[in-house]
Amino acid sequence: MPELLLIGNATQTMLERMATQFTIHRWSDLSLDWLAQNGARITHVATNGHDGIEPTVMAALPNLKLIACYGVGYDAIDTAEAVRRGILVTHTPDVLNEEVATTAVMLMLACYRNLLGNDAYARSGDWAAKGSAPLTRSAEEQVVGILGMGRIGQSIAAKLAPWSPRILYHSRSQKDVPYEYFSNLTEMATASDVLICITPGGAGTRHLVNTEVLQALGPRGCLVNVSRGSVVDEAALIAALQSGALGSAGLDVFEREPHVPQALCDLPNTVLLPHVGSATVETRAAMGALTVDNLLAHLKDGSVLTPVPECAGLLG
Ligand code: 8YV
């Protein structure tokens, strides 16, 4: 049987389907020494958006043909090196759009309506002891700025459009969408009440959201990040929240996952999630199915269903 290296997590269904066609080696049980001896037999890798594949691991797999990513974001995979070596990379676009968009909306609402603070108020007995909880801010009629207007950005916009008088977006180029384009992120942040980040991670977007952008968003502004931690300068974010230069932040992603800075935990105006934007049984099943469909299609006839755009030149 062909041999597959599994990096990180996979659902039971994924494991069962992969095991019908591949001998599976789990990277968590192995070492670079093992790869030096056995790496040449491995033709396929299944990994995820968080773990990706370390350059040393990729280099130790001379006959690798396909890296299947169980996730839409693939910034943890060196696609330039993969393309140079003729290795295909696939990911799981579209099937998680609505779930991640819902997570973004949930974070926004939780920030505005102080979901966590009010939950604690109800549970702790403060309500009985101190009376009504403090008022929150309304999430109605807010100007929403979206950083990244790809598939998930469009799902977020569609979910918020009925609530919002203006949806703005910033991306590298203008898209064919019915929202207001800003070529300058700081200008968009100035015009926005809430800034939602859903642009891909990687070197090109690192720290796009910096002190200047956060200050432009302002003391009543809300930052939501459901993309990658690297997109936001976390130290600048903490400083802005601590000083009151920024109103609140709802974060699903962090710069050094799974590390969540204590300063963010200590702030009352943050809502923090452990990178669960797509983490429901239903959506992970769909992502897992697509990941394995790519692996099995490739095994059957060399085709793949959802290659990353960088691989276009490798496909016939
Ligand atoms: C996880 C994600 O990182 O799809 C993505 O890009 O951020 C997540 O769903 C992971 O890939 C799931 O295994």
UniProtKB/TrEMBL annotation:
<dbReference type="GO" id="GO:0051287">
    <property type="term" value="F:NAD binding"/>
</dbReference>
<keyword id="KW-0560">Oxidoreductase</keyword>
<dbReference type="InterPro" id="IPR029752">
    <property type="entry name" value="D-isomer_DH_CS1"/>
</dbReference>
<dbReference type="InterPro" id="IPR036291">
    <property type="entry name" value="NAD(P)-bd_dom_sf"/>
</dbReference>
<dbReference type="GO" id="GO:0030267">
    <property type="term" value="F:glyoxylate reductase (NADPH) activity"/>
</dbReference>
<dbReference type="GO" id="GO:0005829">
    <property type="term" value="C:cytosol"/>
</dbReference>
<keyword id="KW-0521">NADP</keyword>
<dbReference type="Pfam" id="PF02826">
    <property type="entry name" value="2-Hacid_dh_C"/>
</dbReference>
<feature type="domain" description="D-isomer specific 2-hydroxyacid dehydrogenase NAD-binding">
    <location>
        <begin position="105"/>
        <end position="277"/>
    </location>
</feature>
<protein>
    <submittedName>
        <fullName>2-hydroxyacid dehydrogenase</fullName>
    </submittedName>
</protein>
<dbReference type="InterPro" id="IPR006140">
    <property type="entry name" value="D-isomer_DH_NAD-bd"/>
</dbReference>
<dbReference type="Pfam" id="PF00389">
    <property type="entry name" value="2-Hacid_dh"/>
</dbReference>
<dbReference type="InterPro" id="IPR050223">
    <property type="entry name" value="D-isomer_2-hydroxyacid_DH"/>
</dbReference>
<feature type="domain" description="D-isomer specific 2-hydroxyacid dehydrogenase catalytic">
    <location>
        <begin position="11"/>
        <end position="308"/>
    </location>
</feature>
<comment type="similarity">
    <text>Belongs to the D-isomer specific 2-hydroxyacid dehydrogenase family.</text>
</comment>
<dbReference type="InterPro" id="IPR006139">
    <property type="entry name" value="D-isomer_2_OHA_DH_cat_dom"/>
</dbReference>
<keyword id="KW-0520">NAD</keyword>
<dbReference type="GO" id="GO:0016618">
    <property type="term" value="F:hydroxypyruvate reductase [NAD(P)H] activity"/>
</dbReference>
